Amino acid sequence: MSDVEINEQFVLEEDELIKRIFTCTETSAMVLYLFYEKGQTLDAKTVEDILSAIHVIQQDLETELLHLRIEKTIAATRNKKEFKSKKKD
Length: 89
Prior knowledge:
Helix content: over 70%
Oligomer: single chain
């Protein structure tokens, strides 16, 4: 796999994770709004459990995104060093 293909794969994975994190954020906001609107008929503990579960998923995705960005940076640094070495030759 070429450097360009590797970078494209990182970008695609990063975009997907960002979309999934955004989905968690939006879903939490919608659940909170629903709770606000229908608070009298919804069980507060269940709503809290649902929001906590979404939060855990979001944290896992953010950790995955962090590791992906670290890998992406390491690959970019490696490519930069290789490029400088080739340039000197």
